[in-house]
Design a protein that fits this description.
The complex is a heterodimer.
Chain A lengths: L13 H11 L2 H23 L2 H21 L5 H21 L8 H4 L3 H9 L5 H10 L2 H12 L4 H8 L3 H21 L3
Helix pairs in contact in A: 1-2, 2-3, 2-4, 3-4, 7-10, 8-10, 9-10
Chain B lengths: L8 H8 L5 H12 L2 H11 L3 H18 L2 H43 L7 E2 L13 H7 L13 H4 L24 E2 L51 H18 L7 E8 L5 E9 L2 H12 L13 E6 L1
Antiparallel strand pairs in B: 1-5, 2-5, 3-4, 3-5
The chains are: A mainly alpha, B alpha+beta.
């Protein structure tokens, strides 16, 4: 079982905290909510900005943005929305610094949780046969890694050791394989 | 079933350092597939300095927590400081304005000497009563002034007041008289009073013949036997100096005002301010507005009960 971060401050869900903040606009509510994901926001900012100091500033700046944005935006999934805001902030920063053109993510697109549906489908026994057919249609590398990951519940490191592929390649093969499976499953009406 | 939850920096570091069990890693990776924020954060932490990241995250948490408490306190401090600064600035401005006004008035008193009667002219009233004054003063007070009367031709000026009337003396016709008064409108039910101003300090009957030269300063009236008079709080001299100054300023801006007259009627409220100003006659709208402004901003008057309406004429 994955070890989850304990939410020590509040038993309320993200949606509940968002609602409270939008009504009462108390900053401590937003702070509570943001601090649940600030570690992840920091890591994301490091990825895009390639500098930890800049990432630290970006995390604070994103929080300042949220103070106003969250008051008026309709947010269904706070974590997904936060990801979009954070990424857009970093891209804007990069664009300002380096004049690199990026296309901003649209919150609506990113808030969908398509992949969770795939996992739910995979767990259904009566659809396993069709799933098996779809898996067999994948290219060899994808087939091997997807099978090890989903059917044998192996982690990337184990798959890497078993296949000889490096960690990044394993991750890429599993993600691409998963996407192709989804297309196949949907095509077959599962 | 996929596990859902949030991962912090510590958990991510456990994953990167392979300190998690295979099962934990598998669950983490499954969550990561559905969580782009976690996926990107993992990539970021993989290439970052762990010690620096820990320090930054602690600082971020502290600043965000402080933001909800310290910010308001800071705002209050700035607000208090801002208010004090404003008060201090206001005091400086008022002091400066007071100093400038004082200098102007003194300068006006020095240079202009006796204010010209043609700036403020007494208007005749039909009946004036000052029952508490001696009969000689009564006679003086009830003298009618013809319209557009200047100081030189004023019958009041030409008369010699009785010796027993302290402080009320006349000036020779040659010298401009510091005689000005605000006459109150006649109302059978109201008490009307006239304030007569004293001549310049030091001038007596004996000296009146040599008073061709305008005295330097004018004194305030000493005849106030009837305390229900309406008079400027700081005295007639200062009122005249103020009006002179304002009229001169207006004429500097617009020379066409010269020779124009404005007749006004006004009241004095309980705080001594000139209120309810009404134009009775004026050469044009512009000069009327200027006159109203001059009167409205004039120095305060002494408080009176049931002060009737007063009239005046301002000549440019």
């Amino acid at each position: 079982m994955a070890i989850l971060k304990s939410i020590s401050r509040s038993h309320l869900s993200d949606a509940e905290l968002v609602e409270i903040y939008q009504v009462k606009q108390h900053q401590e509510v937003l702070a509570e909510l943001y601090l649940r994901y600030s570690d992840l926001v920091y890591g994301t900012c490091v990825k895009y900005l390639q500098d930890q100091e800049s990432a630290k500033d970006a995390v604070i700046n994103i929080y300042q943005e949220l103070i106003e944005k969250l008051k008026s935006h309709a947010v269904n999934n706070f974590k997904s929305w936060l990801y979009v805001v954070a990424k857009n902030h970093c891209l804007m920063q990069l664009r300002k610094d380096k004049k690199i053109h990026f296309t901003q993510l649209q919150p609506g697109i990113m808030e969908s949780e398509d992949f969770s549906h795939l996992e739910a489908v995979m767990e259904k026994e009566q659809q396993l046969e069709q799933l098996d057919k779809c898996i067999n249609q994948l290219q060899e590398e994808q087939k091997k890694t997807v099978s090890l990951f989903y059917l044998d519940n192996k982690c990337y490191n184990e798959i890497s050791e078993l296949t000889g592929y490096d960690w990044n390649k394993v991750r890429s093969l599993v993600q691409n394989g998963k996407r192709n499976l989804k297309i196949c499953i949907e095509k077959n009406g599962i | 079933m996929a596990s859902k939850g949030t991962y912090d920096h510590q958990q991510i570091q456990r994953y990167l350092q392979k300190e998690m069990s295979s099962a934990e890693m598998h669950a983490f990776e499954k969550d990561m597939m559905n969580d782009p924020l976690l996926a990107d954060a993992l990539e970021g932490y993989r290439d970052s300095n762990d010690i620096l990241a820990n320090r930054h995250l602690a600082e971020i948490a502290e600043r965000i927590k402080e933001g909800k408490e310290g910010k308001e306190g800071t705002a209050v401090i700035y607000k208090i400081r801002g208010n004090w600064l404003r008060i201090a600035a206001l005091l400086i401005i008022i002091s400066g304005a007071g100093l400038i006004t004082y200098n102007i008035i003194n300068k006006a008193g020095d240079q202009k000497g006796i204010a010209a009667i043609d700036k403020v002219t007494v208007l005749p009233v039909d009946s004036l009563r000052a029952p508490d004054l001696p009969s000689e003063q009564q006679e003086l007070l009830t003298q009618k002034l013809p319209a557009n009367t200047t100081s030189a031709s004023s019958p009041l000026i030409k008369q010699q007041p009785p010796a027993e009337i302290t402080g009320v003396e006349t000036m020779p016709a040659a010298a401009p008289l510091a005689l000005k008064s605000i006459e109150l409108t006649v109302d059978s039910t109201s008490k009307t009073n006239v304030d007569v101003h004293a001549p310049p300090e030091g001038l007596t009957k004996e000296k009146s013949a040599t008073a061709a030269k305008a005295p330097e300063k004018l004194s305030e009236p000493a005849v106030t036997a009837n305390r229900s008079f309406a008079q400027p709080k700081d005295g007639w001299v200062k009122l005249q100096a103020y009006i002179d100054n304002e009229v001169d300023k207006a004429k500097e801006k617009n020379n066409a005002l010269t020779g124009m007259n404005v007749e006004l009627e006004f009241s004095i409220d309980k705080n001594g301010n000139v209120v309810d100003i009404k134009i009775l006659s004026a050469s044009n709208n512009e000069v009327a507005k200027i006159s109203i402004n001059i009167l409205r901003k004039s120095p305060r008057w002494t408080q009176l009960a049931n002060t009737p309406r007063a009239k005046t004429v301002i000549r440019f």
